[in-house]
Q: What sequence folds into this?
């Protein structure tokens, strides 16, 4: 039993060591308000994605204020490393002006969308605040 407890403790400590320095409220909840999981989107035109957040505020990049951050939309990718700056590319869209929605156009096919909050320097909070990953279909 001690070995199992020790292994769990080491795993928890290792995960904590690989998180950003900016604290997040324990009850922060991030979600994609639209589209819904399984949604079919018409191809060839942009569609709106809106971001939902509870128990935490939104602030632009480079603004350091307790319990705030800004959104990053992840498209067809996994969550980034929690102890480094979130990449900025076609799969990691930054909303450093404090935006809470965007328009996206994707090619036909199956796609995943997920949100993660970043602090003033685009590093995930501790603990990381991220949404459930949803799947959409562009046809």
A:
């Amino acid at each position: 039993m001690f070995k199992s407890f020790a292994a769990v403790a080491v795993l928890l400590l290792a995960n904590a060591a690989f998180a950003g320095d900016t604290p997040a409220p324990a009850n922060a909840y991030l979600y994609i308000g639209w589209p819904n999981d399984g949604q079919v989107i018409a191809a060839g035109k942009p569609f709106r994605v809106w971001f939902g957040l509870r128990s935490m505020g939104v602030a632009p990049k480079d603004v350091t204020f307790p319990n705030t951050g800004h959104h990053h939309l992840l498209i067809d990718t996994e969550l980034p490393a929690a102890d480094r700056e979130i990449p900025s590319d076609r799969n990691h869209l930054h909303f450093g002006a404090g935006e809470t929605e965007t328009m996206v156009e994707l090619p036909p096919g199956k796609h995943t969308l997920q949100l993660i909050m970043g602090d003033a320097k685009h590093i995930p909070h501790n603990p990381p605040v991220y949404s459930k990953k949803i799947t959409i279909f562009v046809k």
Remarks:
- The longest helix spans residues 2-17.
- Residues 56 and 67 are 5 Å apart (CA to CA).
- The helical segments are 2-17.
- The longest strand covers residues 109-118.
